[in-house]
Specification:
- It is a single chain.
- By secondary structure, the protein is α/β, with parallel strands linked by helices.
- It has two domains: 238 residues, P-loop containing nucleotide triphosphate hydrolases (Rossmann fold, 3-Layer(aba) Sandwich); 236 residues, P-loop containing nucleotide triphosphate hydrolases (Rossmann fold).
- Helices cover 33% and strands 26% of the residues.
- The strands form six sheets. Strands 6-9-10-3-11-12 form a six-stranded mixed sheet, with helices on both faces. The chain has a six-stranded mixed sheet with strand order 18-21-22-15-23-24, with helices on both faces.
- Helix 6 links the parallel strand 9 and strand 10.
- The chain is globular, with a radius of gyration of 23 Å.
- 46% of the residues are buried.
- The structure holds adenosine-5'-triphosphate and magnesium ion (MG).
């Protein structure tokens, strides 16, 4: 019998400061073998910080840890890896311009050494086994990692972690980047590990998922542990209240069914893209929130990119109705009052090393001027308004975006496009990784944009959010539209039927 209920990791009185930011304040945490532990809390509450300290990615400012009963002071990730701790990080954890196999064995090439050389063939073969072990097919370990999309790259990271057969696996906000198939792979791994006496820590803003899979939920708020709740006491309202420190109502979504104008603002005229989309027609109307849903590989993310001129359209056209402008590239889209929130925020939507200020202000260069000059005052209020509306958790607007927690980075992307006051906004998974309180604020802002006459396309893998917010919904399957539904007639079952 695998040994369970033995303390595996213990964190004692841990603090972590970044300059004047207190990320963790006197944390005590104890996680056992055979357990699936969830960490839950608002954006910036300290979940990634505490996990990454356990996994040797960064050091605490003070406090101690034990692992398997001994003092635990990892200096690098490799220390942790050797001791049996693996973490799938919240941000991109693979390097683009090296092969999949090289990523899987990064820092660990020595086992493929032949004299002074590395046996790449053996490494690629072994990487293939690592991918097979978690049931992933369709990724070639010899290919450059940059060829693969975010979901596939997350699967590569998972394969890497699992190859090392960890005793403790930490999964930080990974599931929201994955389709159901990817999620199922992770859940299966988590439960197999727990059943065999190993330990899993998972971080996610999806409360249902957390309640379904975790044995205990540790709630963090402002760098402190508020409570540890065991499975039998799980109650969604109570957990939410502990996370935000106040009662919050379950009504995030708009309640009306006010419809939209007849005027078409943007249309795709039988567009075909290189990979996914085949002769797709669609129209977006003035004052419409149009949802696009489907399974993750149905082509909806590519459609969002194509509508904004980021994906090559090999046949057909994307046309702005007001003057028949053809959206051939993103510059044309931007100049003509369109905005786009990408699903891949770190690579496509943010300049990570630049400040929050610079990132948000980047959409306002044509708006914050007085004559030929940029007005610092206008620019400041342009940025501050978003920081406030979205409660971006930062020291000040001049901090680099790289210093923000994952969800707060997402708020910067959203804020940058909200500020832009675009007439047409394409949102690809805008609420990915943001906590429930901010989700509610985002929905409110989207709704206000509609009321102000804007047109919005919302691409999402979360049906409840689409049903809650959209006037109309297009469901995609295999690069084509497989169903159209109107707000008054949404029905889960019919929607799902048209997806599969
Ligand atoms: N490198 C850094 N420099 C400065 N501040 C940082 C840095 N990393 C994290 N922080 C701050 O520490 C706090 C905790 O961040 P952390 O990433 O742990 O939050 P989180 O709970 O994982 O949030 P999210 O749900 O958004 O991922 C935040 O206020 C964040 O801005
Ligand atoms: Mg985080």
């Amino acid at each position: 019998m695998p040994e369970k209920d033995r303390i595996l990791v213990e964190v004692n009185d841990m603090c972590k400061n970044f300059g004047v930011t207190i990320a963790l304040s006197h944390i005590n945490l104890s996680v056992k073998t055979g357990e699936i532990r969830g960490l839950i809390g608002e954006n910036g509450s300290g979940k990634s910080t505490v996990s990454s300290i356990i996994a040797g990615i960064q050091a605490a400012s003070s406090g101690t840890m034990t692992y398997e009963g001994k003092e635990w002071e990892p200096v690098t990730v490799l220390d942790a890896q050797e001791a049996g701790i693996g973490m799938i990080v919240q941000e991109a954890g693979t390097i683009s311009n090296i092969s999949v196999a090289e990523n899987i064995f990064l820092g660990n090439y020595k086992k493929f050494k032949k004299g002074s050389l590395i046996d790449k063939r053996a490494m690629i073969a072994e990487a293939g086994k690592a991918l097979n072990k978690i049931g992933v097919t369709g990724i070639n370990p010899g290919f450059p990692t940059g060829m693969y999309d975010m979901q596939e790259r997350k699967l590569i990271e998972i394969a890497k972690c699992i190859y090392n057969d960890p005793k403790l696996l930490i999964v930080d906000e990974t599931t929201t980047a994955l389709s159901q198939r990817g999620r199922d792979i992770i859940y299966q791994i988590m439960h197999n590990m727990a059943d065999s006496g190993k330990t899993v820590m998972i971080i996610s803003h999806d409360l249902n998922e957390m309640m379904e899979h975790c044995d205990t939920l540790t709630v963090l708020r402002d760098g402190m542990i508020i409570d540890n709740i065991v499975r039998k006491d799980f109650d969604p309202d109570n957990i939410k209240q502990k996370m935000v420190g106040r009662e919050i109502s379950g009504h995030y979504y708009r309640a009306d069914n006010d419809g939209y104008e007849d005027q078409v603002v943007l249309k795709a005229d039988c567009i075909t893209t290189m990979e996914s989309i085949l002769c797709l027609n669609m129209e977006l109307h003035e004052k419409e929130i149009l949802g696009i849903g489907g399974l993750s590989d149905c082509g909806m993310h590519i459609l969002g990119r194509a509508l904004y001129g980021l994906e090559e359209v090999v046949d057909g056209k994307v046309i702005l109705s007001k003057d028949n402008t053809v959206i051939k590239n993103a510059q044309i889209a931007f100049k003509n009052g369109m905005g786009y929130v990408s699903k891949n925020r770190d690579t496509e939507s943010l300049e990570l090393n630049a400040s929050i200020f610079a990132n948000i202000a980047s959409t306002g260069y044509d708006k914050n001027n007085v004559g030929p000059f940029i007005s610092p005052k206008k620019e400041k209020s342009y940025v501050d308004k978003q920081i406030k509306a979205l409660r971006i958790k930062c020291q000040n607007a001049y901090q680099p975006v790289s210093a923000l927690s994952g969800g707060n980075k997402q708020k910067v992307v959203f804020g940058k496009w909200c500020a832009d006051d675009a007439d047409i906004l394409i949102l690809d998974c805008p609420t990915r990784g943001v906590d429930i309180g901010v989700k509610a604020a985002m929905y409110q802002l989207i709704y206000e944009m509609k009321k102000a006459g804007k047109s919005i396309i919302m691409i999402s893998e979360e049906l409840p959010e689409l049903m809650g917010m959209c006037d109309r919904m297009l469901i995609m399957r295999d690069g084509q539209i497989s169903g159209e539904f109107f707000r008054e007639e949404y029905d889960d079952r019919k929607l799902i039927e048209s997806m599969i």
